[in-house]
Amino acid sequence: MTAPRDFIAASELILGGQKSGKSRRAELLARQWLAGDPSRRASLIATGTPWDDEMRARIARHRHDRALRVPGLATLEEPLAIDALIRAHSDDRTLLIVDCLTLWLTNWLMPAKAAEERAREWPGQSATFLRSLKEASGPIILVGNEIGLGVIPMGREVRAFVDALGGLNQQVAAACSRVTLMVAGLPMCLKEEER
């Protein structure tokens, strides 16, 4: 027997290209979670960093639009220590959404020169994050970009970033009970373990 198409998995990775519908899918699952029981909570861990005016405006727009689409979804902003927020906020009545893993990795590894010290800390941070994901007592939805389908970047630092993101996506997919690929707003289930 397979689980219903829109069930909330213990943990789900939602991958896709830019503007593929990843965040909207996570929000839909949060609305379903919150509608299922009034004692439930949902929080989004936002990893975006306001580097410039355009990014500040984008973050403000996302915050505003998210509040309209999912009124009960709280937002926690954290660019680096998402493992600590998972440990602090995960429980069986709370759905956590991490949006997004790609920006989180960017905060750790880019720009390459400025992040050299953090890059040395990345393997330990990645292991700590994966451990917090596996030990979480409540459901977690993780959003990330699948950027390995395009051309190979010419710069060494960008190739290293693409390699690191591919490795992170593989590790998170292995740890999650469900993996969804978003294409043109449509969810394609890649992995689904029965509950």
From TrEMBL:
Is Kinase tagged as a keyword? yes
What's its top-level EC category?
transferase
What is one Gene Ontology biological process annotated in the Swiss-Prot or TrEMBL record?
A: cobalamin biosynthetic process
PANTHER family according to UniProt: BIFUNCTIONAL ADENOSYLCOBALAMIN BIOSYNTHESIS PROTEIN COBU, PTHR34848
The record's section on InterPro entries has: CobU/CobP (IPR003203), P-loop_NTPase (IPR027417)
- Quickly give the catalysed reaction: adenosylcob(III)inamide + ATP = adenosylcob(III)inamide phosphate + ADP + H(+); adenosylcob(III)inamide + GTP = adenosylcob(III)inamide phosphate + GDP + H(+); adenosylcob(III)inamide phosphate + GTP + H(+) = adenosylcob(III)inamide-GDP + diphosphate
Q: Which residues form the active site?
A: 62
Write out the GO MF terms. Answer: adenosylcobinamide kinase activity; ATP binding; cobinamide phosphate guanylyltransferase activity; GTP binding
Its annotated pathway?
A: Cofactor biosynthesis; adenosylcobalamin biosynthesis; adenosylcobalamin from cob(II)yrinate a,c-diamide: step 5/7; Cofactor biosynthesis; adenosylcobalamin biosynthesis; adenosylcobalamin from cob(II)yrinate a,c-diamide: step 6/7
What's this protein's family per the entry?
Answer: Belongs to the CobU/CobP family.
Q: What is this protein called?
A: Bifunctional adenosylcobalamin biosynthesis protein
Explain the purpose of this protein.
Catalyzes ATP-dependent phosphorylation of adenosylcobinamide and addition of GMP to adenosylcobinamide phosphate.
Query: What is the species listed in this Swiss-Prot or TrEMBL entry?
Result: Diaphorobacter ruginosibacter
Enzyme Commission code(s) on record: 2.7.1.156, 2.7.7.62
Any matching Pfam family = CobU
Residues annotated as binding GTP are 16-23, 46-48, 63-66, 77, 99
UniProt keywords (A-Z) are: ATP-binding, Cobalamin biosynthesis, GTP-binding, Kinase, Nucleotide-binding, Nucleotidyltransferase, Transferase
